[in-house]
Design a protein that fits this description.
five-stranded antiparallel sheet; alpha+beta; NADH Oxidase; binds flavin mononucleotide
Length: about 200
């Protein structure tokens, strides 16, 4: 696989902290793209490998790697959507359930990030799940830095028991997120952001 990233440091190598104004500028303005508006140019197989490599450089209490990835694209993805669509009539709001599948259909590539906790571990389940969420966040940031639009979504089929079976989720596993990837048909617009000061208290 051809990677455009610097090689990973050897185990035990010094990893100096390097300030990056470019990274801060990217983070300060980062924005998700609407999944239904993702089209065309998407990460190649090599770029996906790079994105997953970056996304797994997250804090992971106990070094358990309690996550796994399923890449969805092309005919296999289309077939998956049809199997999920067959479940829509049985959902509480069938029309909405079918319509929301557009978010899975439109993006050329979707990566399902699965929280896959290690049962026998002493590390609390919550912390293992938090690490999966961190993977999703870093995935979004890296995809943006690579020039792609991305969106983190779950939707009904992440939870519905039959859909879970179709997605190949084992007991105890959960969809941390579907990371949809592509090129937005139009630039995302800024959304409401919280008043940060109101969220901070001091001891
Ligand atoms: C765990 C999780 C699940 C989400 N699931 C959905 C979803 O099912 N449908 C949806 O429209 N947005 C969902 N979102 C929100 C999208 O990611 C949304 O586009 C995002 O909040 C945009 O904000 P940003 O630009 O700050 O990234 C989810 C977010 C998270 C963290």
């Amino acid at each position: 696989m051809a990677s455009s990233l610097p090689s990973a440091p050897e185990f035990g190598a010094a990893c100096p902290i390097t300030a990056s104004d470019e990274t801060l500028a990217l983070l300060a303005r980062r924005r998700s793209s609407s999944a239904a508006l993702l089209r065309g140019s998407a990460p190649s197989a090599d770029q996906l490998q790079d994105l997953i490599r970056i996304a797994t450089r997250v804090p992971d209490h106990g070094k358990l790697a309690p996550w796994r990835f399923v890449v969805m694209r092309g005919e296999a993805k289309a077939a998956l959507v049809e199997r999920l669509r067959a479940l829509a009539p049985g959902q509480p709001n069938p029309d909405k359930a079918s319509a929301t599948l557009a978010k899975l259909t439109a993006p050329p590539v979707t990566v399902m990030v699965v929280s896959s906790p290690k049962d026998a571990s002493a590390i609390p389940l919550w912390e293992q799940q938090l690490s999966a969420a961190a993977v999703c966040t870093l995935f979004l940031v890296a995809a943006g830095a690579m020039g792609f639009g991305a969106n983190w979504i779950t939707d009904w089929y992440a939870y519905e028991p039959q859909a879970r079976g179709i997605l190949g989720l084992a007991e105890g596993e959960a969809v941390a997120g579907f990371i949809h990837l592509g090129t937005p048909a139009e630039p995302p617009q800024e959304r409401d952001r919280p008043d940060v000061q109101s969220l901070i208290s001091y001891l």
